[in-house]
Write a structure and sequence with these properties.
Layout: E1 4-15, E2 18-29, E3 33-37, H1 44-52, E4 58-63, E5 66-67, E6 77-80, H2 92-102, H3 107-116, H4 132-144, E7 150-154, H5 162-177, E8 181-186, E9 197-202, E10 205-211, H6 212-219, H7 224-243
Parallel strand pairs: 3-8, 3-9, 6-7, 7-8
Antiparallel strand pairs: 1-2, 1-4, 4-5, 9-10
Helix pairs in contact: 2-3, 3-4, 6-7
């Protein structure tokens, strides 16, 4: 079993004449929490859609040893979109039983994921009556059905208060400790401090693709926000020098 969950080389995504992802090269190690960090419009969602195989792209993109979008990956990837993908008129348990049939999972697996996301007390509650944080947990529970090796989470904590965000990040760390690989996008810089490795994306280009520890050392900063600004300034300076 390889220790690389995702590998990209020369990855390009264009929409019309606009280049959304510009020749990205990176790897995501298995069993780690990797943060995909960048401002809105930087290409984070497009990259995640490429990884799960629903976005047409050019270049090389390997996921769990197979080309992105390969049919063998359907049960190996759990994906959480920015908007909760659950039925508001069904209970938590009914939602999960429905999605379990799609991945050919069983009732015990439904119970397992409900317990994992700590919604046991809400299992018979209609999803539409849940809080934002609880709804985010239901979406995560859906992604966990079938025990996927890779979890791709697109801004799973957006709109949540700091306490709920912290609880979810604790859960992400638990999942990684069990051997899962997590790629989590965010535009909140302090969340990057919870990640072992970082992909810093801006305007479709990667400014960093290594560990958090190395990023802070390279930029001589104490926080990711300051380090990101330093990387942006360095990239802009290099671009100006290249035009001279």
């Amino acid at each position: 079993m390889t220790n690389i969950a995702i590998s990209a080389k020369g990855l390009i995504v264009k929409k019309g004449k606009q280049c959304i992802l510009n020749e990205l090269d990176f790897v995501v190690k298995s069993g780690t929490v990797t943060g995909l960090i960048g401002p809105s419009g930087s290409g984070k969602t497009t990259l995640m859609r490429s990884i799960i195989g629903v976005q047409k792209c050019k270049g090389e993109l390997s996921v769990l040893g197979n080309p992105a979008g390969h049919k063998s990956l359907r049960k190996s990837i759990g994906y959480v979109t920015q908007s909760p993908a659950v039925y508001p008129d069904l209970t938590v348990q009914q939602n999960l039983r429905y999605f379990a049939t799609l991945v050919r999972s069983d009732k015990m697996d439904v119970k397992r994921v409900i317990d994992t996301v700590r919604l046991t007390d809400q299992r018979n509650q209609v999803a539409g009556s849940l809080s934002g944080g609880q709804m985010a947990r239901v979406s995560l529970a859906v992604a966990l059905l079938g025990r996927p090796e890779l979890l791709v989470l697109d801004e799973p904590t957006v709109g949540l208060d700091p306490v709920l965000r912290n609880e979810l990040w604790d859960l992400f760390a638990e999942l990684a400790s069990e051997g899962r690989t997590l790629l989590i996008s965010s535009h909140v810089m302090d969340e990057a401090a919870r990640c072992e490795n970082l992909l810093l994306l801006r305007d479709g280009k990667l400014l960093w693709k290594d560990s958090l520890k190395k990023l802070l050392a390279a930029t001589k900063k104490n926080d990711v926000g300051g380090a990101f600004v330093t990387m942006i300034n360095a990239a802009e300076k290099a671009e100006k020098m290249g035009k001279k």
